[in-house]
């Protein structure tokens, strides 16, 4: 079983619909992140959370919101999806005190907005 | 402005030869640099990292070189194997411990 699990893995939706992508982890890490991958643009940070009471915006947070329900769960919401939010979304975790900054990624959630 | 740049979108190498993937950065506050490997339909996986106080780190077939004065790092894979075919992302972290900045990735194809 994956240490970082994302659901759904694939989702097709329509413009204007509300979508939630969920992430859960069994690594016991305090820090969790949501990244977005677009072809030719690499991975860009949407939101991150360093513990349950901490939520921070990344470089492309507009149009997204997050909720850190517990140490192990971090969900990403699109309140009103638009086509340019079509992308591959990754959840990641990291360990406090791990100097290398290494992130552990889930397998991704592919979202298509029509 | 992209602070981590991978200017080669793709690279093709023959099996057994050396693969060299390059990465440039602009932020002198980065203290750790990492390489991630990504196969289709999978999440990125950590490959190797280097601290800004080092100029080389080696792990088996993978070696990362850091040239701070040039703000440049490179990943060497020797010898290259077909299973190394993947997208490689260069990433860097500011010493504030914020999050990782990623490059756009280089798609490596190792041909038999």
In short:
Chain A has strands at 4-7, 10-13, 19-25, 31-38, 42-51, 54-57, 65-70, 73-78, 87-94, 104-105, 109-113.
| Main sheet record of chain B | 6 strands, mixed
**Strand runs of chain B, count:** 11
Low-confidence segments of chain A, ≥5 residues, pLDDT <50?
Answer: none
Distance between the termini of chain A: 32 Å
Explain this structure to me?
Chain A has 114 residues and is an all-beta fold. In chain A, 0% of the residues lie in helices and 56% in strands. Chain A is built from no helices and eleven strands. In chain A, strands 2, 4, 5, 6, 9, 10 and 11 form a seven-stranded mixed beta sheet that branches. A four-stranded antiparallel beta sheet of chain A has the order 1-3-8-7, with no helix packed on it. In chain A, a hairpin with a 2-residue loop joins strand 5 and strand 6. Helices cover 0% and strands 57% of the residues of chain B. The model of chain B has no long low-confidence stretch (mean pLDDT 94). Chain A binds chain B through residues 4, 33, 35, 40-45, 48, 58, 90, 92, 99-108, and chain B through 6, 9, 32, 34, 41-46, 49, 51, 89, 91, 93, 97, 99-100, 102-105.
Write the layout of secondary structure elements.
The complex is a heterodimer of chains A (114) and B (112).
Chain A: E1 4-7, E2 10-13, E3 19-25, E4 31-38, E5 42-51, E6 54-57, E7 65-70, E8 73-78, E9 87-94, E10 104-105, E11 109-113
Chain B: E1 4-5, E2 10-14, E3 19-25, E4 30-38, E5 45-51, E6 56-59, E7 62-67, E8 72-77, E9 86-94, E10 100-102, E11 106-111
Parallel strand pairs in B: 2-11
Antiparallel strand pairs in B: 1-3, 3-8, 4-5, 4-9, 6-7, 7-8, 9-10, 9-11
């Amino acid at each position: 079983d994956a240490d970082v699990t994302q659901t759904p893995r694939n989702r097709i939706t329509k413009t204007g619909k509300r979508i939630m992508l969920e992430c859960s982890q069994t690594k016991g890490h305090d820090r969790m992140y949501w990244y977005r991958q677009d072809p030719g643009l690499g991975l860009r940070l949407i939101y991150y959370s360093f513990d349950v009471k901490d939520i921070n915006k990344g470089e492309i947070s507009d149009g997204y919101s997050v909720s850190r329900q517990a140490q192990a769960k971090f969900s990403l919401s699109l309140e009103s999806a638009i086509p340019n939010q079509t992308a591959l979304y990754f959840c990641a975790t990291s360990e406090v005190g791990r100097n290398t900054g290494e992130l552990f990624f889930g397998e991704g959630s592919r979202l298509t907005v029509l | 402005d992209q602070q981590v740049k991978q200017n080669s979108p793709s690279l093709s190498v023959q099996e057994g030869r050396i693969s060299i993937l390059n990465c440039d950065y602009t932020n002198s506050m980065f203290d750790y640099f990492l390489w991630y490997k990504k196969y289709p339909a999978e999440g990125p996986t950590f490959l190797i990292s280097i601290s800004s106080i080092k100029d080389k780190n080696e792990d088996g077939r993978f070696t990362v070189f850091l040239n701070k004065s040039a703000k440049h790092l490179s990943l060497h894979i020797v010898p290259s194997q077909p299973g190394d075919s993947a997208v490689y992302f260069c990433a860097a972290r500011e010493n504030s411990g914020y999050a990782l900045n990623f490059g756009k990735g280089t798609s490596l194809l190792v041909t038999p």
